[in-house]
Specification:
Blueprint lengths: L1 H22 L8 H31 L1 E2 L2 H10 L2 E6 L3 E8 L2 E9 L6 H8 L3 E3 L4 H28 L14 E3 L15 H15 L1 H5 L8 E6 L5 H12 L2 E6 L10 H15 L3 E6 L18 H15 L6 E7 L7 H4 L4 E7 L4 H11 L11 H6 L6 H17 L7 H13 L10 H20 L6 E5 L10 E4 L10 H22 L7 H16 L34 H28 L1 H14 L1 E3 L1 H17 L10
Parallel strand pairs: 1-4, 2-5, 7-10, 7-11, 8-9, 9-10
Antiparallel strand pairs: 2-3, 3-4, 6-8, 12-13, 12-14
Helix pairs in contact: 1-2, 3-4, 6-8, 9-10, 12-14, 14-15, 16-17, 16-20, 17-18, 17-19, 18-19
Length: 647
């Protein structure tokens, strides 16, 4: 008996330890709400197990179960007392010479002589009628209670938070109150033209009568178009914050489900809620997921997404613009939107949000740097100049990375060196100083990068070289040459493209000049050079042989480079052959020019490579001094004054 008690106690301890672990959050439990629900369920199960254990075991530990024959023998010997004779069992106490009486229980057997024998021995006994209806009630009520508890729990899970089966038609909208949106136009920088367009919307939401006084009407919908990270969502929140109205936010993908009719029901519910809380703003992010042009789906015209789009078109037509509900939508793929969405009366106004220029980048950096301790050497204008092509999200990430790098070094402020390292990490990838390279490979990489840098210094229409490094970065980059433009460029001339071709080929050619052999390190350079040559011939009409024609259609959005390449071919096989020959000719002529330059400046190439092998990275004054030596030599030979021959 004692051993059984110890085993059961250890079992209970293990069960409670397991329950405690599940209650505190087992593996993969990240959602606090889910953790709380599972915590209570496991405690309920533990309580049921303990209840069953107390009933079955604790009761059995106090009462000894014996056979009926042993009971008859004890009765003949006069050892029993306090008998209770029930229809199905007999309980009582047995005298023990060594200690107190022990309780016992036995199953009653049909025995007509039992009562007489008990009277003969003078044993007092009493009867007991079992109340069976209580046990029956417990046997019925306990499963019923469990069923009701489980059913109510499932109902709460299915309907809680408008995310369950019973509320599929409810719009899963994020609602921000008038005072919940803390973003204003002061938090948005670098896109002043877009802010100016939306100030009209803010004025209407604040004072609708002023906008309608002369009979005009506010646009029903405003479509924000721009590359990812340019601040479309932030600008929409700023409109709501400036106007002081409620803000309903949903993504286009949240409308469409497998169940037919759910998307349309969510559209109706969204507009119903918006009308009840007018004036307000509805913001639909990633509009291309919902508003893709109909007929493009291979499943036909009756799929769920198209029904959802049809309902959106109906709702935008049906509500009164004077109600004060403004619809803002954001997308980076306006070219695939359904034309019915873009017509006047729906999305009347299209606001283009371009990548910021140098002044815009500087303004964005000032906004994100407000809470950062900057060192005295930090020049935000210089940082803006070296981050050409960065959007607002990239610049915010740059400042965050610089702050983390400074904190990692236990610094009290963020310096310019931290920003430079953060920019290198974002552009080139994580620095891998522990990657082991053989001396031969390191020498090849040094001459490869030196070739890029030297040719960039010799050519007039290239961006200045700001840094050369042979420290591996990212996945496959064994080194890199960084060129920073002096100004933002939106057009490129033919001569600039040809100079860029020569810079790209210079790494490969330098390997050939120094080692008499070539490596696989120029794969990315050759791919980019091929793309430039193809674009010059097929898109820009820069080939005298093929004339002023384009031979490709670009299906991708101007705001998002999908890498789809050229569209369907619309030219003959003969023209295709001429295009291939022209691309090869442009590459070959650029190669010959680079080969002559590097042979003439071999001493500079070797000097730069030796410096790289020694320092692994060149920038700042060292690089400026070397570039000045190259410029003096080029001026002496008159090479930079010579005009490049046209192709």
């Amino acid at each position: 008996m004692a051993r059984k008690s110890n085993d059961d106690s250890s079992l209970i301890d293990r069960i409670m330890d397991r329950i405690k672990g599940l209650g505190e959050g087992g593996p993969g439990r990240s959602d606090p709400s889910q953790r709380k629900v599972r915590f209570s369920i496991w405690y309920f199960i533990a309580g049921m197990l303990l209840f069953a254990w107390f009933q079955s075991y604790m009761g059995g530990q106090q009462t000894e179960k014996i056979s009926y024959s042993d009971f008859k023998q004890w009765a003949r010997d006069g050892k029993v007392e306090n008998l209770v004779v029930a229809p199905e069992k007999i309980t009582g106490d047995v005298k023990d010479e060594k200690g107190p009486a022990r309780s016992f229980e036995t199953v009653r057997v049909e025995d007509p002589e039992l009562v007489g024998q008990l009277e003969k021995q003078g044993i007092k006994f009493s009867g007991y009628v079992e109340n069976k209806w209580i046990g029956a009630m417990i046997s019925w009520l306990l499963p019923l209670a469990l069923l009701v508890f489980f059913w109510s729990f499932m109902i709460r899970r299915m309907s809680g938070g408008a995310q369950g089966v019973l509320s599929l038609g409810k719009a899963r909208v994020k609602i921000y109150g008038e005072k919940d949106v803390k973003v204003s136009f002061n938090d948005v920088a670098g896109i002043d033209e877009a802010k100016g367009e939306l100030e009209e919307v803010v004025q209407f939401l604040k004072d609708p009568e002023k906008s309608q006084r002369l009979g005009g009407r506010i646009p029903r919908g405003v479509l924000l178009v721009g590359a990812p990270g340019t601040g479309k969502t932030l600008l929409a929140k700023a409109v709501a914050g400036e106007a002081g109205v409620m803000f309903f936010s949903m993504s286009g993908s949240e409308f469409v489900e497998m169940i037919v009719g759910v998307g349309a029901a969510r559209i109706r519910d969204l507009f119903k809620q918006a009308k009840e809380h007018a004036p307000c703003i509805i913001f639909l992010d990633e509009m291309d997921a919902l508003g893709k042009a109909r007929g493009l789906n291979p499943m036909g015209g009756h799929d769920e997404r198209e029904q959802t789009l049809n309902q959106l078109l109906v709702e935008m037509d049906g509500f009164d613009p004077r109600a004060g509900v403004i619809i803002l939508a954001a997308t980076n793929r306006p070219d695939i939107l359904d034309p019915a969405l873009l017509r006047p009366g729906r999305f009347d106004r299209h606001v283009a949000i371009d990548k910021p220029d140098i002044r815009g980048r500087e303004a964005i950096l000032k906004v994100h740097a407000k809470g950062v301790e900057l060192g005295p050497d930090v020049d935000l204008k210089k940082i803006a100049a070296m981050t050409t092509g960065f959007v607002g999200a990239d610049l915010a990430n740059l400042i965050n990375e610089a702050a983390l790098i400074a904190a990692r070094g236990n610094a009290d402020e963020v310096t310019m060196a931290d920003f430079q390292e953060a920019a290198d990490r974002i552009i080139g990838g994580l620095e891998k100083k522990n990657r082991v390279m053989s001396p031969k490979e390191k020498e090849i990489v040094a001459y490869h990068e030196s070739g890029h840098a030297l040719v960039a210094m010799l050519l007039p229409d290239t961006d200045p070289v700001s840094k050369i490094s042979i420290i591996p970065r990212g996945i496959a980059a064994l080194g890199y040459t960084q060129q920073l433009p002096t100004e933002d460029r939106y057009l490129m001339t033919r001569d600039e493209l040809l100079d860029r071709l020569q810079v790209l080929l210079a790494g490969r050619v330098s390997e050939e000049v120094i080692f008499g052999d070539i490596s696989t390190g120029a794969q990315n350079d050759l791919q980019r050079a091929s793309d430039i040559a193809r674009s010059m011939v097929m898109e820009y009409g820069m080939s005298a042989r093929l004339g002023l024609l384009t031979y490709t259609r670009q299906p991708q959005s101007r705001y998002l480079d999908l890498g789809l390449g050229s569209g369907e071919r619309e030219y003959s096989e003969r023209t295709a052959q001429e295009i291939d020959e022209e691309k090869s000719r442009i590459i070959d002529e650029a190669y010959q020019k680079v080969l002559l330059k590097l042979k003439d400046y071999r001493s500079f190439l070797e000097k730069l490579a030796r410096i790289l092998l020694e320092k692994e990275s060149i920038e700042g004054d060292d690089l400026k001094q070397f570039a000045e030596e190259v410029r003096i030599r080029a001026a002496a030979t008159g090479e930079q004054a010579q005009a490049e021959s046209s192709l």
